[in-house]
Structure formats: C-alpha cells, structure tokens
Amino acid sequence: MRDFGLILGIVVGVVLVAGLLLGPSDRAPVIAPDFTLSNLDGEPVTLASYRGQVVVLDFWATWCKPCITSFPDLHELVARYKSEGVVLLVVSIDKSLKKPREYLIEHGYSTENVLWGSLAEARAVKELFGVIGIPQTLIIDRGGYIQFKGHPTKIYDETLSSFL
Questions:
Q1: How do strand 136-140 and strand 54-60 relate by DSSP bridges?
Q2: Fewest CB atoms within 10 Å of the CB: 6, 83, 126, 163?
Q3: Does a structural domain hold residue 112?
Q4: b/e map of 45-70 (b: 16 or more CB within 10 Å)?
Q5: Cα separation of 147 and 32, whole Å?
Q6: What SS3 state is found at 143?
C-alpha cells in the first residue's frame, strides 16, 4: 500500500509539472512581435510586411545538425503552399553570414528569405519570440497571430493548411 502512495505521488507530480511547463492547450494566440533583420543579400526584411500571408518562421543554424536535417523537408512543405500565400522566413543563428550563405548556395536554396543582420540581432529576435533551443519553428497566421510553436518536424500538411 505504501508503494501505491509513492507511485501515485510521483504520477501526480509529473502531471503537475507537465501542466506548468506545457500550459493550457486552449491559450489564445498572441500577436507576433514585429522585427526587421537584413537578409543574406543585405536587404531589410520586416515581419509586418508579410501581414496577410501565412509566415513560417524558422530559427536555424548551419552548426545545428537537427536544423540541417529538418531544413529540406520544411522548405519542401512551404513550397507546396507558396501559391496560397505561405512564406518561409529563416533566422540564422550563425556567428557570421558566410557559413549560411555558403550552405544555402551549395544546396540550391534562396538567400533572400534567410535573415541575419548580426549574431546579436539574430539572438535578439530569437529572444523576442522566446526561442530557447533550435531548430524552432513558428506559424504566424494571416492576421499576425502565432498559431504554432515547436520543432519543424511537427509541422505537417494538415497543420499548415489549417491556417489558409
């Protein structure tokens, strides 16, 4: 009987901690904070200029193995919905713009949607969105509200199409 009480106490504790960490699932969406960063071509890109489109905002770096692994699938997914107003913006957390630029060009990706500015600026945007680890991806709906925040491999066609 004593073991049952201990097990029950552990289960209740785990559930309470999970509830605190994950929070309620019916939280109202919050408006995405605006920011401006330069893309890898040196042109300023402002999040608010994409209002009216669905934005997939990915935090990524070339030194991050899970980022590199999930990158092709995320690009492919967004490309399927491009004609429906879905855009991909990638914030690079690399130390310089040289490595991401080389990686993107070598693998045939565009550099105009990858944002950097400087490491300090990229980190500031990362903190603005409460991103702790990468890869981390957000879906921002046409009204500018954050509808999804999680690992890019957790975004499926059904997830993305539900915001169209």
A1: antiparallel
A2: 83
A3: yes
A4: bebeebeeebbbbbbbbbebeebeeb
A5: 9
A6: coil
Beta bridge partners of 88: 56
Q: Based on the structure, what is the number of domains in the chain?
A: 1
pTM confidence score: 0.83
Answer whether residue 56 is part of any domain: yes
Cα 58 to chain centroid, rounded: 3
For residue range 52-105, list pLDDT tens digits in order: 999 999 999 999 999 999 999 999 999 999 999 999 999 999 999 999 999 999
Residue 37 domain-assigned (yes or no): yes
Q: Which domain holds residue 71?
A: 29-161
The CA-based angle 11-18-10, given to 5 degrees, is: 20
**What's the CATH number where 113 sits?**
3.40.30.10
User: Token pair of 129, please?
Assistant: 């969105």
Phi, psi for 5 (deg, rounded to 5): -65, -40
